[in-house]
Amino acid sequence: MASQTACASRVVLQASISSATTSSASTRQQPALKSAGASSAFFGNGVSMRSAVRLAASKPVVTSATATFEKMGADVANKTYYPNGEDSANANKKWYIIDAEGKTLGRLATVVANHLRGANLPTYTPSMDMGGYVVVINAEKVQVTGNKNSQKLYRRHTTGRPGKMKVETFDQLQARIPERIIEKAVKGMLTKGSLGRTLFTHMKVYAGSEHPHAAQEPVDITEQINKKLTQLSPNN
Question: Which end of the chain, N or C, is more open, meaning fewer C-beta atoms within 10 Å of its C-beta?
């Protein structure tokens, strides 16, 4: 007898909980429907409930979460810096110039690549073009160490057919196209992909001391070639 009474009490309790949940859900829906101008038999009018739901969907109600976000403002906990389009615009980039006369090829290319990528700046971001433009003059006077003048080889293919590969030494390429030596060295130090191809176009290499970029007033950074990275100034 006691077990039957407990079962009956449990059934009544579950029914009361279900009815309370349904009534609370209906109560939460009523203000949204009323604020949207909906009318139905439930509200004492002759419009169906389906029409009321359709009207409520067409006029969304501002929730309390949106109001809370507007009061709180921006997320102050997330302070991670990431550059925008204005930070990486070409019009805002700095111009640098390097004199390659008597400089070692590898050390020269390292400084050029760092300034093209913007690794010398505190705003450096690997996935963004944050660097500047670099002008290299006197490309025909760059040097290499050891016996690389005759041992370092450069290969190119005149056509796509087998047997058309041409090989020449450092001295031969320097006499033919001296700009090509610095271009190949810097390109190998840049990131591969579309970003690297874009950065490569920001380097201007010229044989001789004349260049057409005097209007940009480039900053001379030749003295940074033989310095360590810890000795470089962020402003350069």
Answer: N
Indicate if the alpha-carbon torsion angle 75, 76, 78, 82 is positive or negative.
Answer: positive
Hey, is 142 helix, strand or coil?
coil
Cα distance between residue 149 and residue 108, in whole Å = 17
Q: What are phi and psi of 134, to 5 degrees?
A: -125, 125
pTM of the model: 0.65
Per-residue pLDDT of the chain (236 residues; tens, 9 = 90+): 445 545 445 544 455 555 555 444 444 545 544 444 444 444 455 556 666 666 666 655 555 555 565 666 666 777 788 898 898 999 999 999 999 999 999 999 999 999 999 999 999 999 999 999 999 999 999 999 999 999 999 999 999 899 999 999 999 999 999 999 999 999 999 999 999 999 999 999 999 999 999 999 999 999 999 876 555 555 55
Strands 165-169 and 203-205 come out as unpaired
Q: How many residues does the chain have?
A: 236
Which among 32, 39, 61, 191 is positioned nearest to 119, based on CA atoms? Answer: 191
What does the H/E/C string look like for 175-232?
Answer: HHCHHHHHHHHHHCCCCCCHHHHHHHCCEEECCCCCCCCHHHCCEECHHHCCCCHHHC
Alpha carbons 162 and 6: distance in angstroms, whole number: 92
